[in-house]
What does this fold into?
Amino acid sequence: MTSPILDLAGLTLEVNHLARGVRFYSQVLGLEAVHHDARRGVAEFSVNAHQTLTLWEPISRQRNDERLARLGARGASHLHYAWQVPEDSLERCQEILSEHGLPWQAINLGTDEQPDVGVYFFDPFGHGLELRAVNLQDERQPYFPPWTLHRPAHALPVVGLREAALAFFDFEAMLERLPRAYGFALAKTQQDRNFAQFTLAREPERDGNGTPQRWLYCWDPQVGLADMLGGDHALLRLYADVDAVERLVQAAGLEHGRDDLSLVVRDPEGHVFEFMPQTQQLPGWIGK
Ligand SMILES: [Fe+2]
It folds into this structure.
């Protein structure tokens, strides 16, 4: 089956101190805050023209986003996720992290002949971040290719969001449900652990060697590489053929809602997926 899912549009992280989060993501990642509402506990950053990173600070008796509140959406806790950076920038990225006083760890995920290095570090809230170099000329392009943007010299030269890793207690049920109930394209499982990788695109693809594709990883609640955890109660936004996803979600009987902007679905494990059409332009959409 061709997947109705086109690309990764955004991630929302739960943070316990919004101002600290805005400072970290502005200074270390060089992101531009396009929406900042301390009263609601919300800050949204544009990553590039098509992807966003959002921070939600939970506040008693308040909703971070009225539209998503009915489905119990929260920002993710301890989410492992990855950024795309240009080829040949990883050494400079390591220097930048050290200049900010952030410990990091580099792991070669490729081979000796064809290295594919992930650089791992943590934000102040326990989210596990990774930097992966992408070949901007690679023929395996996502629906919205990464954008090279000007970032301040002291900030990481991120060009896109690459992946998110979510925890699922019932791994086998997840493996059956995600393709059937949403249409996610399964790319890979592993023999030695409960680990599945989905390509956020029409067709499953092979990962590795600088691909600029986007990915969803799903694990049982294990500690992965570099002590990274899959996120709990994550909120992911995806570009998709929304009508096609809605048909699957309805057939699966999952709790969902739809308005002019998007289809929002609550997964039985507490994650919330928001599907929006690729014609919905960011960041004009943000904060509406
Ligand atoms: Fe990763």
Q: What stands out?
A: Residues 80, 82, 130, 163 surround fe (ii) ion (CB under 6 Å). DSSP finds five helices and 16 strands in the chain. Helices lie at 18-27, 66-69, 90-99, 171-182, 242-252. The longest helix spans residues 171-182.
